[in-house]
Structure formats: structure tokens, C-alpha cells
Write a structure and sequence with these properties.
The protein has eleven helices and no strands. It has 350 residues and is mainly α.
Length: 350
């Protein structure tokens, strides 16, 4: 009788499956040329952020420098997002370049507002799709930081356009457009609504209901709230602004930022996690529009963003612990679920 090894009876975890979304062939087949193009886009992103950043620092630069940087970032966001989702680069990048150059050269208010809105939408959606699946808490925090960093570059670009718009309307348009674009992209990446399991469908429905309740309640309070309620809210905002220098934004703290943490964690196990990422776009789109008003104070917005990000991270990690099972410790005779893989960060998802 042969001896049984000490590991007999234990089942090994299955090897990762192949990527479950069809991808196109790379249009640039030379790895060296592809790396050169990626380095060029990254360099253009850094240059655009520096040029557009002159709009939010206390130095007097010509407006052409600000808007030139904003136009460059508009093209960069378009190129990066189109590449990531496997779109047609010649069409979308060309349209973004035409819009950016025309708006920067003419200075027409309508074109400036349009360019600012498109910049905010592209940056918000790119911040979402540029993330990768996160199996552990440190990885989730890293992807969370990546998304916020990209969204902040969009914030700077929108501020550099210096568009003459109403913040409330501009914010509503950008959030709606970013959500619509995200749903279109995620429909294929997340296998459509029919691909959701019962548990994930319940989570998605609960989050959607929360969005409706929050937005409806906020609208009701602003328009029909009693004087005592509105005065109390105003007093709290003023007190926090005077005491800590900023006010956390509830839609980011309780909805958008936690959705980013939970979404990247679920994507490590099932591609339906993309549907949770859709709600994360709410936070990135609100962030990209936060400096659209010329009367906005960068210091106040920066502190409000920091407070929102920290609180949203804490809530997101708490929800992640409840929703996403932890398989870091593998029990005996239990098969660990397959870890889902995705293309590299700089590769196309489709």
C-alpha cells in the first residue's frame, strides 16, 4: 500500500480563468512603439496638469496657458478612455481635439462650457475604468487612490476652462452624462443586467434606491424644507467651514466613494462587480465639477475632498467586509474561488 502524502484530502485552488470579455487585437503591434505612445500620453497628461494647474494657484498667468492645458487634458482623457474601452481612436480623439482647440481659440461661452462638461465626463469615467480588480484591502485602497487622482486632474482641467455656468445645472448634466456613458460601457464589461446573480442584483437595486432617496430628499429639502431645517443645515455647514475648513459631501461619503472600494473588490471575483463601479462614477463626476465655479475656493474644495475621501474610504471598507467575502484564509478541504483576471492597466478591456 502506498503512503498517502500529508496533503492528501486537500483540494488545490483552481488556477485563474481566462479573461471573460473578448478583446480586440492591438492596433500597435510593436511593443516598443506601444510603450513609446503610452509614455507620450502620460507625459502629455503631466504637462496638461501643470499648465491647467496655473488656474488654481496664486500666480497671474495668461488665460491662454490655462485653457491650452485644459484642451490638452481633454484630448488626453479622450485618448486614454477610448484606448481603455477599445473604441475607435481616430473618431473620438479627433472630435475631442477639434472641440478643445475650437473652444480655446474662440473663447465662445457655449464652446467653453461644452468643453468643460466633456472634460469632466471623460475624466470621471476614465477614473473608473482605469482601476483594476483588488483582492486585498491594500490593493483596494491603491485602486481607490488611483481613481481619485485621475478625477482630481479632471477637476483642475475643468477649473482651467473657467466656464461661465450655473454650478447646480452643470453638476447635474455632468453626473447624468457620466452615469449614462458608464452604463453603456459596463453593459458589456458586466455581462448586462441578465448576468447579475440574485445577490448582486439585490445589492445593485439597494444602491439605486439609495441614490433616488438621497437625491429626492436633497431636492425636497432645498425647495420645500422648513426654515428651521434649512437654517440648521446652513449653520452646520458654516460651523464646519469655520472650524475645520471644509465640509464632507454626503453623496461622495455615503455612496460614490464606498462604491469604488466595493466595486474593485467584487471585480476580483466576478465581472458583475462592474455594476457597482457605475455608482462610483457619481463621486468622480462630482469631484471633477467641484471647481467649475470661478467663485469656488480651492483650499475649501481640497479640504472637503480630503474629508469626503477619508470618510468614504472608512465606510467603503466596512461595507466591503460585509458584502465581499474574505478568502485570504483557506480552510481545509475547501476550494478557494477562482480569482478573476483582467488585462493590464494600460491594455484595452475590450
Amino acid at each position: 500500500m502506498t503512503e498517502r502524502s500529508s496533503s492528501a484530502g486537500r483540494r488545490r485552488a483552481a488556477t485563474p480563468a481566462e479573461y471573460d470579455v473578448p478583446t480586440r487585437e492591438p492596433r500597435v503591434r510593436s511593443p516598443r512603439a506601444a510603450r513609446t505612445l503610452m509614455a507620450g500620453v502620460f507625459a502629455a497628461w503631466i504637462i496638461g496638469v501643470v499648465m491647467a494647474g496655473t488656474a488654481v494657484i496664486a500666480f497671474d498667468f495668461p488665460w491662454r496657458v490655462n485653457r491650452a492645458g485644459a484642451a490638452l487634458l481633454l484630448v488626453v482623457f479622450s485618448v486614454a478612455l477610448t484606448h481603455r474601452v477599445g473604441g475607435h481612436m481616430r473618431i473620438w480623439a479627433a472630435l475631442a481635439a477639434v472641440l478643445g482647440l475650437t473652444a480655446a481659440a474662440s473663447g465662445q461661452p457655449v464652446l467653453i462650457a461644452s468643453a468643460a462638461a466633456v472634460t469632466a465626463v471623460l475624466a470621471a469615467v476614465w477614473a473608473m475604468v482605469f482601476t483594476r480588480p483588488a483582492l486585498t484591502v491594500p490593493q483596494a485602497i491603491g485602486e481607490y487612490t488611483v481613481a481619485i487622482g485621475i478625477a482630481l486632474s479632471g477637476t483642475i482641467a475643468v477649473a482651467a476652462w473657467n466656464a461661465s455656468v450655473s454650478y447646480a445645472r452643470f453638476n447635474m448634466v455632468v453626473v447624468a452624462a457620466a452615469l449614462g456613458l458608464s452604463i453603456v460601457l459596463v453593459w458589456n464589461l458586466g455581462s448586462g443586467l441578465h448576468g447579475l446573480g440574485r445577490e448582486h442584483l439585490l445589492v445593485l437595486s439597494a444602491v439605486a434606491a439609495l441614490i433616488v432617496l438621497v437625491l429626492a430628499y436633497a431636492s425636497f429639502v432645498r425647495s420645500h424644507g422648513s426654515e428651521w431645517v434649512t437654517d440648521t443645515i446652513a449653520s452646520i455647514v458654516i460651523w464646519m467651514r469655520q472650524t475645520v475648513g471644509g465640509v464632507p459631501r454626503p453623496v461622495e461619503v455615503f455612496l460614490g466613494f464606498p462604491a469604488l472600494i466595493v466595486g474593485v473588490s467584487l471585480r476580483a471575483r466576478t465581472r458583475e462587480g462592474w455594476w457597482i463601479m457605475v455608482f462610483g462614477v457619481i463621486s468622480t463626476s462630482v469631484l471633477t465639477t467641484s471647481l467649475v465655479s470661478p467663485r469656488a475656493f480651492p483650499t475649501y474644495i481640497a479640504l472637503s475632498t480630503v474629508y469626503s475621501a477619508v470618510l468614504g474610504l472608512a465606510i467603503g471598507l466596512l461595507v466591503r467586509r460585509i458584502v465581499v467575502p474574505d478568502h485570504s484564509r483557506r480552510a481545509t478541504r475547501v476550494v478557494e474561488p477562482e480569482r478573476r483576471i483582467e488585462p493590464a492597466r494600460l491594455a484595452a478591456l475590450k
